[in-house]
Write a structure and sequence with these properties.
Layout lengths: L1 H10 L2 H32 L4 H51 L5 H27 L6 H14 L6 H29 L7
């Protein structure tokens, strides 16, 4: 039988021999899959399917990824919302100070309103574009120092001016807090590990 098999294989061309070899290996593989694989699976895994473990692990990774993605989305939304609140608080304080400056004497009123407008234009035209590039320029701080110097140099002459001046100082301090929170948001971000 071996001699007849050998002579038969010798009589085949190279293409036919390759086809016979492929057919033999496919037949051996199919026999292994059909007959031996179920037997080995029962011996190794018992009654439990091997795919159950793969499905369980994949589901856990998917759940972990979904939770992480959800938390990142919530954190990003909260950071954006907080930043919008800081900008709104800063603008509100600035607007209040601008309109309340009408109670000051003419010379100081004109100076403060001019400095408030200059600060507002600087924030809109210089600060915000720089924030998009993760930079925080110092020009706004210089403008606030000029406003601070003008406010602290004023001596109220009446009780009305004293109350007004106290309120403007309070709004100025609130605006500074909102500004610092806005500036701190420029460099904040998600932790690298996330």
């Amino acid at each position: 039988m071996t001699a007849s098999l050998t002579s038969w294989l010798d009589s085949l061309s190279a293409g036919e021999l390759a086809l016979v070899c492929c057919a033999a290996f496919v037949a051996i593989t199919l026999i292994g899959v059909v007959l031996i694989h179920p037997l080995m699976r029962r011996l190794i895994h018992g009654e439990r399917q091997a795919n159950d473990i793969v499905i369980f692990v994949a589901a856990n990774y998917g759940l972990l990824y979904a939770v992480l993605l959800g938390l990142l989305t919530v954190a990003t939304f909260q950071t954006t919302k907080d930043l919008e609140d800081h900008v709104a608080d800063e603008a509100s304080s600035l607007s209040t100070m601008y309109h309340s400056a009408d109670g000051y004497p003419e010379l100081l009123r004109g100076q403060l309103k001019s400095e408030f407008r200059d600060y507002t234009h600087y924030v809109i035209e210089k600060d915000w574009p720089a924030h998009q590039r993760a930079r925080a320029p110092q020009g706004g701080e210089h403008r606030l120092q000029a406003i601070r110097a003008a406010l602290f140099s004023f001596e109220p002459a009446s009780k009305t001016q004293e109350v007004l001046h106290g309120e403007i100082i309070r709004e100025f301090n609130a605006m500074n807090v909102s500004r610092e929170q806005r500036l701190s948001a420029v460099s904040s971000g998600m932790p690298v590990v996330l």
